[in-house]
Automatic annotation (TrEMBL):
Domain of life: Eukaryota
Entry GO terms, CC: catalytic step 2 spliceosome; cytoplasm
Protein name per its UniProtKB record: WD repeat domain-containing protein 83
Region span, Disordered: 1-106
Organismal lineage: Eukaryota, Metazoa, Chordata, Craniata, Vertebrata
Entry keyword Repeat: yes
CDD domains: WD40
Family, similarity comment: Belongs to the WD repeat MORG1 family.
WD repeat ranges per the UniProt record: 134-175, 176-217, 218-250
Organism this protein belongs to: Gopherus agassizii (Agassiz's desert tortoise)
Entry keywords, A to Z: Cytoplasm, Repeat, WD repeat
Amino acid sequence: MLLLDMLPGGADRCNTPRPGAMVPENPLSPRLAGASRSHTGRAGDEAGPTKSPAPLPSAAGPGSEEAGQGGRNQGSQNLRGRGTEWEPDTEAPLPSPRSQSPDLSDLATVGPIMAFPEPKPKKPELPKKLVQNLECKQGAVRAVRFNVDGNYCLTCGSDKSLKLWNPHKGTLLKTYSGHGYEVLDAAGSFNNSQLCSCGADKTVALWDVASGQVIRKFRGHAGKVNCVQFNEEATVILSGSIDSSVRCWDCRSRRPDPIQILDEAKDGVSSLKVSDYEILSGSVDGRVRRYDLRAGELYSDYIGSPVTSVCFSKDGQCTLAASLDSTLRLLDKDTGELLGEYTGHKNTAYKLDCCLSEKDTHVASCSEDGKVYFWDLVEGSLTLSLPVGRGVVQSLSFHPSEPGLLTATEGRVQFWREETHTAEEQPPAC
């Protein structure tokens, strides 16, 4: 006779653990395999209809009702964790699903057994409070850019210099000089070890952050270079120029020629963004072009007015384009469908930046009237007009993960945070 047949209930009780037995973890348990769970049960319960298991045999014998009743009257069961399942003490009967619940204090050291709803997300906050005012002292600031993690920023000046700042503390870290004319755009690598910049001297420069020296200069554009970006691995620099081309430069090669030239634009390239496998460009010819590098395809959307700035949404599903008709347009990336238009600001003569907030809840744009405008992404309503200065707000940059905004107007850069933000206390000077 099998030992299984000697147990009360025979083979029907094969899933019931014996008192004191080690219960192995089930590798296909929903908690381990990541399967969805439509209901919440005790740890160790199997999926399917809930059944009341028969009580384990007690010291008084399997047929003793007094022993089972006495065990239930002793209060909460003392359970011990065995991996991801629970096992009762030797003398304690297994409670049925509708019996008295176990003491949750005994389970606190192992993990939760119930799934609670997530807290309601907070209403997104917009940066309204000025926390830092940086006097850059590099002429007019043509562009301001956060680095990849938002801890530092770059400012491009009309005095041919590029500066690295800590905007949270308002401190200047380093100045990079090497361009022959004003610097128009800059970007940082994913590991913050290198910088790239471009300017009106028709060149693209690759910098070493620590030493401040130029590693390489790329020449080949026939006019001033308006925008520059690293690819995701910082092995290729992409630059867009007034000569109507986007050029790709290999940072690891010593060859002076670009590895690829994208010359589909009919007028100057004003803005450029790069994702892991896509290149997004805006041109003065009124078109937004998206190059899908994996599929080898080009998608073009006609805006009808010179495009001054383009960007991807954080989820990668949409593109945003600003143009000289004082309108921002949100487009579906795959179909080109117009999802929304945002108006109210002034942009008729200058190349101004636009962007999306860190959670894609709001659209932001510079303006020629000295303000930064915010619209609700879905509703399209104007949410905030932030007074920045008297002159044109030419550039802005949104923090990658927090409600923080950098704005550039005239010769200074301002750092804005949400109203609930509290500045970090500075250590006292020695």
